[in-house]
Design brief:
Number of helices: 5
Oligomer: single chain
Shape: elongated
């Protein structure tokens, strides 16, 4: 995405890139302390990328490993629902691993994984320009590779979904002096009907490479949906290009930290050097799980929908 500023706006954007790290770090700390009150530079950056991302929603069931019978949870027609973000890039977009195996990001699933597969029911997306979502099938736009992947983020080539428009990408490894743009909401569970989303850019220097970068969320009274890492680059007189370097992936059932997954490609040696994630302690059983001592007590049989899902 390119910004071509004029007059006072030009000076403001120049200040965004040229301000000292100490000044911007202090402003970032102010955001943390004041729970979301942003400086003018941060507001400008948030405005510049507000149309660069979209919201995805994955509904899933669980399938009995012995019988293949599908189940929802507590009289529901799904077992769980996971929201995540995607980011538009030129001639494509980038998704997180949440879109491939959403059950790995559902706190209930560890109690069932020994006896049940995760099974995708639907994968949808919506633009974020209004307060009311309009979810459309994501599988109609791309053939999602719903196979297990060790990648935190997955780029896709697609010139049709967003008419080829999106952020430029930075594929180079090394130190980045950029910003994490956190995508937050007041209530994740309400995103099916209301898009109360806001962006909070936080200045953060990170090293892009084979290893994902662990990051901390801002201290705010909102829930984090996801985020993405960008670097504003001066691209000629009066012009700045905002480049996407990676996406933030929330904690999963196997790890407890937020990670930035990088777009820079890895050679075989780098890929082999990436250590597997350290498993987190198993989640405690919920009262519904423990009822009657039988995990199936909390499950509801669901008739399979033709052509949906893939067992894991």
């Amino acid at each position: 995405m390119k910004i071509t500023p004029h007059h006072g706006l030009s000076l403001a954007i120049a200040a965004l890139v040229g301000a000292s790290a100490a000044t911007i770090d202090a402003q970032s700390q102010l955001v943390n302390n004041l729970q979301g009150m942003m400086s003018s530079r941060q507001e400008l950056l948030a405005d510049a990328v507000e149309n660069a991302y979209f919201l995805t929603c994955q509904d899933f069931l669980v399938a009995d490993k012995q019988t293949g019978e599908l189940y929802g949870y507590e009289n529901g027609d799904i077992f769980g629902r996971v929201y995540s973000i995607g980011v538009k890039i030129k001639d494509g977009f980038v998704l997180t691993a949440q879109t491939q195996e959403p059950w790995d990001y559902d706190a209930k699933y560890p109690n069932y994984k020994d006896d049940f597969f995760g099974d995708m029911a639907s994968s949808t997306w919506t633009a974020v320009g209004s307060s009311t979502p309009s979810y459309t099938s994501l599988s109609e736009e791309i053939d999602l590779p719903w196979e297990k992947t060790d990648s935190l983020i997955i780029p896709y080539t697609n010139k049709n979904l967003f008419a080829g428009e999106g952020l430029s990408v930075d594929l180079t490894p090394g130190e980045k002096n950029g910003w994490i743009v956190w995508v937050t909401t007041a209530n994740i569970d309400a995103l099916q009907t209301t898009l109360d989303l806001s962006l909070i850019p936080i200045r953060k220097s990170l090293v892009a490479g084979a290893q994902p970068s662990e990051v901390e969320t801002p201290m705010i009274d909102r829930q984090v949906v996801g985020g993405f890492y960008i670097v504003p680059v001066t691209d000629g007189m009066g012009t700045i290009t905002i480049k996407l370097c990676g996406l933030v992936v929330p904690p999963s059932n196997d790890r407890q930290s937020y990670l930035v997954g990088w777009l820079c490609p890895l050679d075989e040696a780098q890929a082999a050097a990436v250590a597997p994630a350290q498993a987190a302690p198993a989640a405690e059983a919920t009262p519904a799980d423990a009822k009657g001592g039988n995990k199936k007590d909390a499950l509801t049989p669901v008739k399979p929908a033709k052509g949906k899902g893939k067992k894991k």
